[in-house]
Design brief:
Blueprint: E1 2-5, E2 28-35, E3 38-45, E4 54-58, H1 69-74, E5 80-85, H2 102-116, E6 121-127, H3 128-139, E7 144-152, H4 164-168, H5 174-181, H6 187-198, H7 207-221, H8 226-242, H9 249-253, E8 260-265, H10 275-282, E9 286-291, H11 298-301, H12 303-317
Parallel strand pairs: 4-5, 4-6, 6-7, 7-8, 8-9
Antiparallel strand pairs: 1-2, 2-3, 3-5
């Protein structure tokens, strides 16, 4: 495994157009890690002290490691945090083989954990990242201490109407059609649309955070592979939904040995809130946190509540780290 500091663009993407650097928040660093067939950008924070157990965070479709920055800051006394940019997202270039399936993304995460020697880790996943980390936990239980899933993209027989456009993005040709149809949209308009879809209350996004999101989208729209990565990853989710047998995600959920924290938002427009109870039944050792006012990205809307729930998981399972004292009542149903 080769690793280089990269506050901007990974060395592996030198043949790509020059774009603005990725934002690195206070207390964070970004580095590029070269692995067989893939180069991954890894965002990390310096832990409050040495010896804390490792954690790895995996974002959802269209997201990046930045989606976890607030939660990572909340947990810097509890775990040694790293967040990955999946291939083709954030600051990671596309995979060499063009494989954006859930299995392909899971393989990239496993390759990184094997090469880094950090496992077993406390593994976090949101949306697409939830499907990816479920697969990782099922096939490589030796790499996972606990599993925390925020609105995981697990198969639904009847998807929500508001999630249909995302699913359609995986249909060949739709991404190109959508690009032509929306070519006059500004980055601000696009970001407002995404926030309206992903947040229970978009008003919780500060003006500064909104501007950062606009700047990141403007950067990504300059990348020639942006829409291809989005479309192929969306297709990967749809394909994963159709798999049966041992490769089916619900069957793999039943094989997860790690203690699992499930977090669902009552205002989620992409993953049905009704799936929460089914997930709680599927994962053998699970606990469920329901956040009635949250949308699809509870770790961004309510990072303090998610952090409290994770500390409680550690306390219940004997996990290492400073849990920051007794957990307080978050006032949310579970």
């Amino acid at each position: 495994m080769s690793s280089t500091e990269s506050p901007s663009v990974p060395a592996a993407s030198s043949a790509l157009p020059r774009v603005a650097p990725v934002r690195v928040g206070e207390g964070e660093r970004l580095r590029s890690v070269g692995l067989p067939g893939v180069t991954l950008s890894i965002r990390s924070r310096r832990p409050a002290r040495e010896g804390l157990p490792p954690a790895l965070y995996v974002h959802g479709l269209g997201g990046s490691s930045q989606n976890w920055s607030s939660l990572m800051a909340e947990l810097d006394r509890v775990v040694d945090s790293e967040a990955v940019d999946l291939p083709g997202f954030g600051d990671s270039p596309p995979p060499d083989d063009g494989n954006y399936s859930v299995t392909g993304h899971a393989r990239a995460v496993i390759r990184y954990l094997d090469a880094a020697g950090r496992g077993p880790v406390h593994l976090f996943g949101n949306s697409l990242g939830g499907a990816v980390t479920t697969r990782v936990a099922a096939v490589r239980p030796d790499l996972v201490r606990t599993l925390t899933l925020v609105s995981p993209a697990l198969p639904e027989l009847r998807i929500q109407r508001t999630a249909a456009p995302t699913a359609l993005l995986g249909v060949p040709g739709v991404a190109a059609l959508f690009t032509r149809f929306t070519k006059e949209w500004t980055a601000e308009q696009r970001v407002r649309g995404v926030l309206g879809l992903c947040y229970g209350d978009p008003g919780r996004v500060s003006p500064e955070a909104f501007q950062h999101a606009v700047e990141e989208l403007e950067r990504r729209l300059q990348l020639p592979y942006f829409w291809d990565a989005m479309a192929r990853s969306a297709r990967g989710i749809v394909n994963a939904y159709t798999l049966g047998g041992q490769h089916g995600l619900w069957r793999q959920a039943e094989r997860v040995l790690a203690p699992t924290l499930l977090i669902y938002g009552g205002r989620d427009q992409l993953v049905g809130f009704r799936m929460a109870r089914r997930a709680a039944r599927a994962f053998p050792d699970s606990r469920l946190l329901s956040l009635p006012d949250a949308g699809h990205v509870a770790m961004m809307e309510y990072p303090d509540v998610v952090a409290t729930a994770f500390r409680e998981l550690l306390g219940d399972t004997g996990g290492a780290g400073d849990t920051g004292g007794a957990a307080t009542d978050s006032g949310t149903g579970s």
